[in-house]
## 1
Amino acid sequence: MKIGTVLHPRCYNRDNGSMMTKALEYRDVTFSYGEESAFRMEHLNFSVEEGEFVAVLGHNGSGKSTLARLANGLLTPDRGAVAVFGATLTQKNLFEIRKQVGIVFQNPDSQAVASIVEDDVAFGAENVGLKREEIGKRIDFALRAVGMEEFRTATISRLSGGQKQRVSIAGVLALKPKIMILDESTAMLDPRGRREIVEVVKNLNEKEGITVLMITHFMEEALLCSRAVVMNRGEIVMQDTPEGIFRRGEELLTYNLALPRIGEICNRLRAGGMQVRDSLDVNTLAEEISKCVS
Amino acid sequence: MRIVAEHLSYVYNARSPFATKALDDVSLTIEEGEFFGIIGHTGSGKSTFVQHLNGLLRLPSSLKRRKKKDGVVLTVGEFDLTSKKTDFRALRRHVGMVFQYPENQLFAETVFEDVAFGYKNFADKKPERDEVERAVREAITAVGLDYGAVKDMSPFDLSGGQKRRVAIAGVIVTSPEILVLDEPAAGLDPLGKREVMALLHKLKESKCKTVIVVSHDMDEIAENCTNVAVFSDGKVKDVLPPAELFKRTEELFSLGLDVPLTAKLTLALKQRGVEIDCDYTMEDFVAKVLAKRGNVC
Amino acid sequence: MLKDVSFGQYYPVKSFVHNLDPRLKILFLIGYIVAIFLAKEFLALGACALVLVFAVFIARIPFGKVMRAVKGILFLVLFTAVINVFFHGGSAVYWDGPAVLWEWKIFRVTQAGIMFSAFLVLRLFLLVICSSLLTYTTTPVSLTDGIESLLTPLKWVRFPVHELALIMSIALRFIPILMDETERIMNAQKARGAMLDSGGPAKRVKAIVPVLIPLLLSAFHRADELGDAMDARCYSGGKNRTKYKKLRFSWRDLLAAVLLAALIAGVVVMRYFPVFPL
């Protein structure tokens, strides 16, 4: 391992000659849940640049959640290391790292410790010992960022699923993380809730510059990301732009994944002899089709 | 068995500050043999409605007294659910209900015992061992699992998709005529989703005459259903086959509901002057588009 | 939905009582209970009742809500009262007529017995109404905050006050969720023909297994996820932790405290200088 990469978060990217900052880096990580478990992650190397919006796809049990939990020390690698902005994660800097890497989990009903929105959002900020005024400001900021200001004193159990998850995101945001990981945070929501979350997260990425790792098995959600990664049996098997990934439909099937429906329609049209280009959104495909019908 | 509901209303927590009207004068008929879809977003009353179908929710007695006046009707085949004398156990045997995340209700030590649970419960007298075994074998095979391989396994050692199949087997083991499923594909990965929907088609042909699916996934609804009821604010807005329903894209959007991808594409094509008249299944859409193909491409 | 009808749940309106410091409300409840038990005559208890009726009134809790709390213990109270009527004995005379009204073997109904039972019933009702007033007007969070704050002196003897308060607050948060979950699982098993509300005790215990196991599994699963979510938000126990909400005494609290003090003083005075002794 080069010393430079350990000491300096900024390293030289040979491909385009620019300075890139690695927000999150898995260096040769090996991990298992003990002898009985069939799951193995071996020599995983993977990194996320600052400001990226990466989707992680994979069927249930492919290692997506393990990847998330390794990022902030909820799990510790058996061998290898995880680094956040160049700092290797150790027992000593665990809490510093956790401030920088927030995780939102799957179940909207299992993440809140308090019954009232603002009390729950305050939890993380209280844990790190911030002053009262600062906590107040953080709550303002976090609730505004997820569009829940008017629910500040609402009872969490009376909110909709999407709103509950937005509170979960706010609770993480109150720690001002630089990286946010969503571990299937949309899986238990209805379409409306899913849209809410995707919108909020996209906004955080664009406006607040937060690096996002979005674990999901909704193929449609992956279309919004700048890069998509496919996991299978604890291994990263595909890495590309969403378009690039979905061009390889056959390969996706072997990992128990499916094309988004729009990709499937493209394929079927081509199989029927209509030469439409791969398009991942409705308007582009409609344009392609309308070119082919006179 | 035909399902008829007329002027059905239901209020949660009546006479409290949290009183919410979940159903508001709902009238709906579901014919035998339908693959019936129910859509509407969370809190629109669709789950409340389906829970009436096997008597898990019942008409409050105050309503029963008034029912003659208001003309409230709720019948499932021969069962009159507004009557006090209804044999709800017999009803539940004919109306199987698969809840959201049904794998969360697995409890027994083996897959066999879990699937047999319902069969034993509904038997009038203690059933013979081989009788139970036949029913369980049939149910497990029907959901596409290998009976010999899974029957002695703990249900908790199965994968997510397998667990869900076992849970469905636990409901169809009594061969209900009507099978009701609330979000049967929720939480599964894309392939698991497709497999479950394919399974429902198979079950409809082999075991259950009527299948009722509550779903948020409009693509699923468009691909599978013969008729769709749209719930909104406790009311039924419309009951239409998907081919008709998804023509009303604007109306569905205004209710905050989505439409299938094929409907979105149809709309986008229309804006570009290309009229496609399909039933919104992917197959029909592709066929209709290809039929319009000019000589350019 | 079971969760909305559970006893003693927070009743969300704005009022003088809702705005009181939770610590004061807890102390008020304790003080009030002391007053009830110090009261020796109807006049004193009547004063207590008056204060409580006033508190309920300004708390804007509907009368029916309060009565529902009483209904829960109605049977217990009446049972105790009946026992007391028959076995109390005593010879005091409160109105014209014989001291002993009716007698048969060991049963003896006396004027004193009737008065004593009535006194007991009133006492228990006041107790229940006052406690439910606390839970109706105080959110779970401020209640646990109040308890934590009141128990702070115990930190000196290394009692895990913060952890206890957190456990209480999480429990309160998850009760409605778990009740919902129980209902869902019960419905699912009923749909599979489970008879959960019929048969003898042995049968019922057996019938509970299909509900209990999924419920426990789900609770453990939730606990796991909650633990991860807390860890991810930098939780490391009470050390170096700050609090967003500071409890503060205001003029309201002072007013309530004065009222309570007056009540207790009055009751104590009447105890030693009875007006109409019981």
## 2
Amino acid sequence: MAFKLDAKIPAGALAEKWSNHKAAIKVVSPANKRKLDIIVIGTGLGGGAAAASLGELGYNVKVFCIQDSPRRAHSIAAQGGINAAKNYQNDNDSVYRLFYDTIKGGDYRAREANVYRLAEVSNLIIDQCVAQGVPFAREYGGLLANRSFGGAQVSRTFYARGQTGQQLLLGAYAALNKEIAAGSVKSYPRHEMLDIVVEDGEARGIIARNLVTGEIERHGAHAVVIASGGYGNVFFLSTNAMGSNGSAAFQCYRKGAGFANPCFTQIHPTCIPVHGTQQSKLTLMSESLRNDGRIWVPKKLEDVKALRAGTLKPSQIAEEDRDYYLERRYPAFGNLVPRDVASRAAKERCDAGYGVNETGLAVFLDFKTAIERLGEDIIKQRYGNLFDMYEEITDVSPYKEPMQIFPAVHYTMGGIWVDYNLMTTIPGLYAIGEANFSDHGANRLGASALMQGLADGYFVLPYTIGDYLAKKIQAPKVKTDTPAFDEAEKAVKDKIAKLMSINGKQSVDDIHKKLGNIMWENVGMARTKESLNTAIKEIQALRKEFWKDVKVVGDPMSFNVELEKALRLADFLELGELMARDALNREESCGGHFRSEHQTEEGEALRHDEEFSYAAVWEYKGMDEAPELTKEALDYEFTERKQRNYKD
Amino acid sequence: MSCFLCNSSLGKKLVMSLSGLFLVLFILFHMSMNVVAIISPEGYDAICKFLGANWYALAGTVVLALGVLVHFGYALILTLDNYRARGKQRYAVTTKEPGVSWSSKNMLVLGVIVLLGLGLHLTHFWAKMQLQELLDNHEVVLCNGQVVSPTDGAALIAYTFKEWYNVVIYLVWFVALWFHLTHGIWSMFQTAGCANDTWYPRLKFAANALATLIFLGFAAVVVWYYVAQHCPCCAAC
Amino acid sequence: MNFTLKIWRQKDAKSKGAFETYKVSDISADTSFLEMLDILNNNLVHEGKDPVAFDHDCREGICGMCSLHINGLAHGPGQNATTCQIYMRKFKDGDTITIEPWRSAAFPVIKDLVVNRGAYDQILQAGGYVSVRTNSVPDANAIPIPKADADESMDAAACVGCGACAATCKNGSAMLFVAARVSSLAKLPQGRVEGARRAKAMVAKMDELGFGNCTNTGACQAECPKGISIAHIARLNREFLRAKLRD
């Protein structure tokens, strides 16, 4: 049974859709809000902002996070900034331009109405955060400062040093604390959602594991909001936090929520290259570095050899022997092309044999020109902490020698399918932030993730959820002693018992590394029909291996990190296959999804709008069954779809 | 308002800070007075006589005693709190954090040494001076049979610091006081909220300078009186 | 490189803990400290033993989740870095490394090296926010803020809430943590409105939770992975005393 997808996009002119929609949807009176319970999973920018705003409105909110405090969610690690169409720089920015850049950056695979709404509320976010006491960077006149980011020709990114995500998250966390103190929100740190409970076709609550005691708990609510972030850790090595996982989203998918565009993965161009096989985590260097850093590889292969042999230092290579390939290929945007373009260009050079470190998988990010132009002091002011961090990790000072960078998995544009109200295909179940699929299409622009998380949490969900909850004002408190809860809890307990009983030979990490390899090699920056078929086969085999040979030690009724990891890996092993299937289905290249068979003569992504202008929404059919595809057509009423051009 | 000085951590610390300030001011005064004993023993005795057991000197003594009591009492309360806050399980390995002064971590120990020194000092001087006046004794018989007036401070100084061990004990006492003050003086500004990154180097310099001045002033009298009584050439003149 | 690790093992909050000794070998100098523990844990799993529990998440020095008292120093050797930012080249081949959890009455051990830092959340819940409702705010540029003030506010706001300040303080004092939040908001006009209430409420909560009293040793500032200055403590003192004296 395929989904009947209704995106519920309001009618009318693009700029009026959101206002019209807000006027049309139902609201819940304050007296009734008090009677309604909402569960929020995750406390990043989306979840934190949503839980705080919903609490403030008067709903009873329970908020869950796997970390020891809501403040630790991985939104905190976003470095560069947050976009908004304030036009404070007078550079002719506007809501429309931000909308257009985002649609174009996403390679025309996002919904117009959603993206326009995002651009529209972006300005409110900045106002909100400043009022919360977020110390954004300022100019001497006391007004807010901006910088530029990839994929934009205006300066619209607001930032707080290299810690913008942290500051925005602390703002949302503070708002959450205000509500926790007021009693409207109850916080459950060190709790992991292990299943969603669906009854009569509607979301009724969750099954969660207390990560300290191992107890399995039932929590009922009139609506559940998933804000659990992305699933980039399916690749094992990524810039995501160690605990980031796709399990909450995956449980929704398993219980009937559509999962859209799972193959859209963003590979970030500026990460510190992998150094060995024992690494657990990749470190991102902020995209803001591309404002002043220039990316290059040597022109001559003998220089590459000398570099690898250590007989030549990069700083010794003459200017005319350097290939600033982004500036060469994309004169208009230069080093500030979108992430997918920059990443692929780096891969192209490395594949051609010009990669600069021992593994051949690195390019240079050089500040020489900027230091000459602006002086070391200014560069230190702008990027001092990032330079220090780089030196700490690699033992090389970026003031003296260029940084080495290489692309790494960073963000997943795909996620749970949601309609304009951010509701999934399961009534009462919502998904916001990175966990949903809606706003970034096939590629996300820098400084837009923070924008989307906060937009959903502060300014969209608090309104749209009322439309559903208005129908629930007569509903009694959700009971958790129903057969649906019994069944869900039993399934979770059985799964844990099964994992504990296998007692095989491989650790969770051993298998996760294998999965990561399969994914990176076959479902990474460049995908082919062949590689994807290989991936599907290998992942299926690995999944069998996992369920036969994994070794989970310790006691399930206690603090048990191995069990947590095993539960998450079990889901990654299915999610990886889903990603490969989606990539296989999408016989075109767009944004972060690059099918080698589909490229222009210059090696750029080649879209096939006639056939693939849709969101691929997958329905779960069982662990070893092929999922069923439903297409949500993406109609472009207001923008003309073009070949993305960052050249002129 | 009154209660925050007893029931909040910052209030209690303010009491430490203010009582500390008061004690520093007193010590400065005492040190200045002592230095007179080098320049002119007669002048010093005149000051002793002026203070004596007059109502203002007595009031001063009482306030001073209260200051010491409050400062030390609060130190005990705060330290006990802190001990509890540290928890039962201690670190097996500790390393000194860079830039952290030794005295800042040993203020209580230094304070106890200063207090013990104070006890000895009171028996050496106060017990033979103001106390005797209060008891209406106009003559004090010292251990060596010498009879002095309770206001003849200079004679008592000479008597006390004739012995080398008293000189050593007092010098140790002054060293402890020096350490205590190097942290205490800038710290009281910090606790009262009157400090920032620009002023830390200035405050710490001032604290060290003042502590050193106080140390030198006190030590000079002790050493001077010892040397004057033992050095043959000094005795000759 | 090879190392001998002396690690605090404790089954749960109620159990008594003890040190256990482990060896790890063939560690690259470019391995991060936590990756070294990952390697140890993977070995332990293969031996069928319970791996060492330790808190960590972002591994980029920003989430504040990692802790660890390494060879007597919070977040190990090196300044202005969290444990996840420490690399094994900071140690000598053959070193014995002692790893302990944060020790503070307010941070009880949950398991091995994992402690409960919920007290910090509670302090912030007492007043570490500006009471604005979503959407009822003026334009972001309506109030100009001097750059120096915004910068100083940001210096304090850099706090990651890791707990190193209280863990390293001989008095178990959380003053640097509390001060960072109070000071950050006190430097901004948006935060000034509730300044007095905030300072009083957060200090009261800090005292209630059993944190110790600051004696200005400056150990917190030395061990803070974000290099937050005790000048913010001076500002907290100022804010608090001014508020109390006006009551």
